[in-house]
Amino acid sequence: PREIFLKDYKMPDYYFDSVDLSFLLGEEKTIVSSKIIVSPRIEGNSHPLVLDGRDVKLLSVKVDDKDLKEEDFHLDSHHLTLTRPPSGTFTLEIVTEICPQNNTSLEGLYKSSGNFCTQCEAEGFRKITFFQDRPDVMAIYTCRIEADKTLYPVLLSNGNLIEQGDLEGGKHYALWKDPFKKPSYLFALVAGQLESRDDTFITSSGREVSLRIWTPAQDLPKTAHAMYSLKAAMKWDEEVFGLEYDLDLFNIVAVPDFNMGAMENKSLNIFNSKLVLASPETATDGDYAAILGVIGHEYFHNWTGNRVTCRDWFQLSLKEGLTVFRDQEFSSDMGSRTVKRIADVSRLRNFQFPQDAGPMAHPIRPHSYIKMDNFYTVTVYEKGAEVVRMYKTLLESSGFRKGMDLYFKRHDGQAVTCEDFFAAMRDANDADLSNFLLWYSQAGTPNVKVVSSYNSEAMTFSLKFSQGVPATPGQHVKEPMFIPVAVGLLTSSGEDIPITSVYHDGTLETVMENGQPVFTTILKVNKKEDEFVFANIAERPIPSLLRGFSAPIRLDSDLTDEDLFSLLAHDSDGFNRWEAGQILSRKLMLSLVADFQQSNPLVLNPKFVEGLRTIIRDPSLDKEFIAKAVTLPGEGEIMDLMEVADPDAVHAVRSFIRKELALQLKEEFLSTVINNRSSEPYTFDHENLARRALKNVALAYLASLGDEELTNLALDEYKSATNMTDQVAALAAIAQNPGLAREEVLLDFYQKWSDDFLVVNKWLSLQAMSDIPGNVANVQNLLKHPSFDLRNPNKVYALVGGFCASPVNFHAKDGSGYKFLGDIVLQLDKLNPQVASRMVSAFSRWRRFDDYRQALAKEQLEKILAANGLSENVYEIASKSLA
Ligand code: HT7
Ligand code: ZN
Fold it and tell me: EC number(s) per UniProt (predicted)?
């Protein structure tokens, strides 16, 4: 397989001014005709025109109305090359045949539940027709769709509907025109039996936009929350960024077979059904929140991605990091900012930090790839969003907005790079962002150490930072990064200390705002060793470091346990209050893991229990915050901090602490469950979702004890639940412990919901993720269950992905978990390489484990690599994991 490098980027030799597409959708095959107006980038150039194509059969090719002679083109399995194109602007007409019915890869044009739909990002358009399938080739598109009217009554594409009508033989057609230039990856087509929920949105300048959400008729009642989310997102983008929608129509289509979450095709977003359909009975609060965030995300791409797009795929974070940042901010404004930040940072720590420390580590702008699909990663998305957040931290909200405005002013309608975004932020603010661009090119999570000291005579408090970025594949030597560290100082009784001035590099800098002292200041750490000294500090303070997680780093400080308990009780920065508890939990878990490994008895620190008791009992705290604060760090997060990851020890310790907390805080947890029930109808608002979150965390703790009384309590909650959030939480609480109650309630749940594929996926994933011993056999059986289908990505993510998320079972010492995954990856690869390569990634941290496990995992990776006809997708991940 060929590796593609950022440094080799070349502008296209030809531009496409317009593209007229025509689809004849048939039951066996589909005929695609394209008519393209081609212009050379440099007048008179004589370069060949190379078009990408995969699995498409060429029927004809014409230039300026004449069939191309055989000696004037060349065809291979990946390209159609016009060897001697005309020297000026010309018309190129190509007719191809494709077979969407047999397309299980779910990229290009394929069928999902009998309907046609497309997925073109990143390089799927080349599976539809021969094309310069790259984002810097932008054109105006029209799309004519012709199909049987009974089978496919709805025909959709991008832009505005220009014309439609009936044809002979029971057929009909629709003609769409998109007035905005776009790259091929934003093209979309949908044809099928769908109905729509319709609404309107009046933009800030008074234009009326028709909004339509399309699903099979029976699912329409479940689209109310998606419509609410869309309208909220449209309003938010106007209010926060001054960005208005630019067409008269916005369509969303929900499809059950989709490789990722959703796709931002211009005015025709296509969504995984999971992220559109919700009713209180079938969707959890988590599902409602995900729908809000992802509907927002795809809508926000209309400006950050579509109006301004990427020059090449290396720049993916330009649109994805920025749009994730925008959706995070949107969700924060719609709910609790602190809790959203906690959730986002947990995700970063649990998934991105491990990636950045493993064989697949890459900068948010990778230097090379074999298969672009493999770089839709937590690094490009979530770390990319953290990088955008740092601009906002450094430039403040108003400066960030100025930078965004300049970015759109300069680049609307263009395909640009991450430097263009950086330059807009810098120029709009006349800011010194010195070595900030390193965040785009250096992989690895920076390690930052802070040492503090107080000088009572000088009344100064010093913070000495030292930083280093670990070596990552292909990058052994690293430069120091520009790290914004938000800091506050607390008195011993927990009040914020006013900050007036800070010495840095020999100069005293005043940090007041409007003549007033501040309570949080941003230290710009950008040297290997950097010291900041706070002036006028009357007592030894407790520093609250990296408030709001102001940079994606690992911070190691000299805070004592006493300091941390004080921050947990008092910090005015909600995020850091949670963080103090997490640091204490991590320390505690690591020391108990050491005890477990040395066969010492496990004893829980009473101060830790009391700290949590105070939090649970504090009526002034947000309930969702309490739920987060009493949740221990995940097993993966702890394994990540160990020299050699020991899944059995970590699992034993986490289970021990959970049970011990359940025993010692039983009264508090019981009253939490009782006091947070509600007989009101379900509403998705902060107060109610926070109440449910807290009740269900308490229930899970109690049920972990597995005694009859508490199992019955969970059974009662299960039976009396009036919404899916409470029902599935009670089910999960009971299912923690093997036994009859577990079996009965799982069966009952399946029987209730066997007709609803999205709910059945919850049932699959709950069983797959279970840490009950020897779960691999259960999961093997579930592969044969009638509700499972290897061709549906959601089911694979639920069952196979769910299984790999349970460290004790996936990393079982007998190798059964590894063998299960190795076998399944090979089967999947033949159907859907994108999904197979997502699954094989579970192996990538194999070197973190003991020698015995390493040998077992390596064996599976070698088996995969030795397979015939392996996809480039799986090859790239498996070979890089072994390298
Ligand atoms: N921009 C979208 C990316 C996407 C995608 C990429 C590769 C293969 C399948 C895909 N489906 C959607 C999603 C987003 O980030 O908005
Ligand atoms: Zn996106």
Answer: 3.4.11.14
DSSP state of 255: E
Tell me the DSSP string of 281-296: TT--HHHHHHHHHHHH
Catalytic residue among 121, 123, 146, 298: 298
Q: Establish how many alpha carbons lie within 13 A of residue 56's alpha carbon, considering only the half-sphere containing its beta carbon.
A: 30
Backbone angles phi, psi at 686, to 5 degrees: -60, -45
Within 8 A by CB and 6+ apart from 121, the residues are 185, 186, 263
CA–CA distance, 500 with 303 (Å, rounded to integer): 40
Handedness of CA 584, 585, 591, 595 (dihedral sign): positive
Q: Which of 254, 150, 148 is nearest to 197 (CA)?
A: 254
CA-to-CA distance for 312 and 845, rounded, in angstroms? 29
Q: At 666, list the tokens.
A: 């039983």
| Closest atom of ligand 1 to CA, residue 834 | 8
Asked if 681 and 632 count as a contact pair (C-beta separation under 8 A), the reply is no
* 3-state secondary structure (DSSP) of residue 44: coil
If you take atom 14 of ligand 1, which residue's CA is the nearest one? 263
Query: Per this entry, what is the length of the chain?
Result: 883
Question: Cα angle at 474 between 819 and 467, to 5 degrees?
Answer: 105
Whether residue 122 has a cis bond before it, omega within 30° of 0: yes
Give the residue among 606, 628, 486, 598 at the shortest CA–CA distance from 550.
486
**Which residues, in sequence order, are CB contacts of 761 under 8 Å at separation 6+?**
274, 794, 795, 798
162, 175 Cβ separation under 8 angstroms: yes
* ipTM attached to this prediction: 0.99
| Annotated catalytic residue 238 | no
Q: Given this model, what pLDDT does residue 44 score?
A: 86
Parts of the chain with a pLDDT under 70 = none
CA distance 596 to 594: 5
Ligand 1 residue neighbourhood (C-beta within 6 Å): 119, 121-122, 259-260, 262-264, 297-298, 301, 320, 373, 376, 834
CA dihedral sign of residues 248, 253, 259, 262: positive
Could you tell me if 640 and 354 are in contact, meaning their C-beta atoms sit under 8 angstroms apart? Answer: yes
Structure tokens that stand for 149 in this block: 């009217």
Radius of gyration of the chain (CA): 28
**Which phi and psi angles does 777 have, rounded to 5°?**
-65, -40
- Residue 105 burial (CB count, 10 A): 21
Q: Comparing C-alpha atoms, which of 817, 785, 777, 786 is closest to residue 801? A: 817
Question: Rounded to the nearest whole angstrom, what is the distance from the C-alpha of residue 132 to the centroid of ligand 1?
Answer: 19
Q: Which residue reads 């990663």 in tokens? A: 377
Query: Phi and psi dihedrals of 24, rounded to 5?
Result: -105, 100
The secondary structure of 733-796 as a DSSP string is: HHHTS-SHHHHHHHHHHHHHHTT-HHHHHHHHHHHHT--STTHHHHHHHHHTSTT--TT-HHHH
Cα-based torsion angle of the residue sequence 589, 594, 597, 599 in order, rounded to the nearest 10 degrees: -100
Largest CA distance in the chain: 94
Can you tell me the distance from the alpha carbon of 29 to that of 97, in angstroms, rounded to the nearest whole number? Answer: 7
CA of 97 to the centre of ligand 2 (A): 30
Check residue 850 and report its DSSP letter.
Answer: -
What are the two backbone dihedrals, phi and then psi, of residue 700, each rounded to the nearest 5 degrees? -65, -40
Residue 420: the pLDDT is: 98
Determine the Cα angle at 340 with ends 581 and 650, to 5°. 45
pLDDT, tens digit (0-9, with 9 covering 90-100), for 582-629: 999 999 999 999 999 999 999 999 999 999 999 999 999 999 999 999
Mutation pick for ligand 1 pocket among 107, 118, 121 (CB with most ligand atoms within 8 Å): 121
d(CA 23, CA 157): 11
